[in-house]
Amino acid sequence: MSHSLSLSHQCYLQTLPPISHNASFTCHHTPPQKANGSRRSPKLYIACARGNNRASTPNKDDYHSTLKALNSKGRSPRKSLGQNYMLNSDINEQLVGVAGVEEGDVVLEIGPGTGSLTDTLINSGAFVLAVEKDKHMAALVSERFSSTQKLKVLNEDIVKCHVRSHISSLYGNTKEIDSDNRKAKVVANIPFYISTDVIKLLLPMGDIFSEVVLLLQEETALRLVEPSLRTPEYRPINVFVNFYSDPEYKFKVERTNFFPQPNVDAAVVSFKLKQPSEYPYVSSSKSFFAVVNSAFNEKRKMIRKSLQHICTSLEIEEALESIGLLSTSRPEELTMDDFVKLHNLITKE
Q1: Which of these ranges, 143-157, 249-263, 289-303, has the smallest mean pLDDT?
Q2: Please, are residues 154 and 131 in contact by the beta-carbon 8 Å criterion?
Q3: What are the extents of the domains in the chain?
Q4: Is 336 annotated as a binding residue?
Q5: 223-249 burial, b if ≥16 CB within 10 A, otherwise e?
Q6: Less packed terminus of the chain by CB within 10 Å, N or C?
Q7: 111 has binding-site annotation
Q8: Over 80: is that where the pLDDT of 57 sits?
Q9: What is the CATH number of domain 63-278?
Q10: How confident is the model over 219-238, as pLDDT tens digits?
């Protein structure tokens, strides 16, 4: 597991004893909760230390301001849309820091919600394209940032959104954006249930995005970044991720930082996108992933059996042996490079 954040970004949330009033910190209290019929005392979470000589300032996107924003539209988080709003602005700062967002960058944000992360991105100097499926939240974010020219809100489902055309349109039609600028980035706290769809949509776009930074369910983050061969966690999505990017686990985010609080913790993952010229050579990416998926569809079968619809078992055995693998190999035993070599040997141009 890689933790490449600077010291200023390593802000760990933990239960602490009472703190002196002379100390300056940004603090969050979780309301008392009942557990097994008893009431537990509130916990104090330290988001990030401020300088001792600097007065602490209220967090604009804390629990109360989030509720206020939702109430202004008569809204409540919709479980069907996986809406869990970030309450800790310091984590938003870390997200933006991981992506290295700078003045003049174009950033795609997915599911801006009440605009907590949007605010941090705009203050970093970025032009933000925010895609929000919930029309009420799209209206809320548009109103909140109505005075800035550095935000465009689309009321669309990201999975059905023509991201490439919208990004191209921004570079061509927005005066504030330098068309010769570096590639766009993605920074987003996405609903957990669309994680795989978003990854499959964005990672092949290395020609327009340089990096994708996502806040994901921690279990998903670990499975994507640290899969081990010969384990149930190793799946076709791992081959896909490594074909198009270099993924890196950045840091864990406790579930107490969200409203409503989910049943799982989250984690931030950075996907450094490969340029099309850097993709492993295959005659057809469509054909390549069809081979990978077919192999995993019958995971416990040997590859010489699961890929018989492509060529004979004997040809598959010979191909496996020629790349240094056993003829009895199963899909969970092959790395991405192994699959690339196998594909190129058994498929016809």
Answers
A1: 249-263
A2: yes
A3: 7-49, 63-278, 285-346
A4: no
A5: bbbebeeeeeebbbbbbbbbbbbebbb
A6: C
A7: yes
A8: no
A9: 3.40.50.150
A10: 999 999 987 887 888 999 99
Domain 63-278 identical in fold to domain 285-346: no
CATH classification code of 285-346 = 1.10.8.100
What is the torsional sign of CA 261, 266, 270, 276?
Answer: negative
Residue 123 annotated as binding site: no
pTM value is: 0.77
74 is in an annotated binding site: no
Q: Is 297 annotated as a binding residue?
A: no
Over 80: is that where the pLDDT of 241 sits?
yes
Q: What is the mean pLDDT of residues 143-149?
A: 94
Long-range CB contacts for residues 202-205, cutoff 8 Å, separation at least 24: 202/163, 202/271, 203/240, 203/241, 203/244, 203/245, 203/271, 203/273, 204/244, 204/285, 205/163, 205/164, 205/273
Alpha carbons 17 and 181: distance in angstroms, whole number: 48
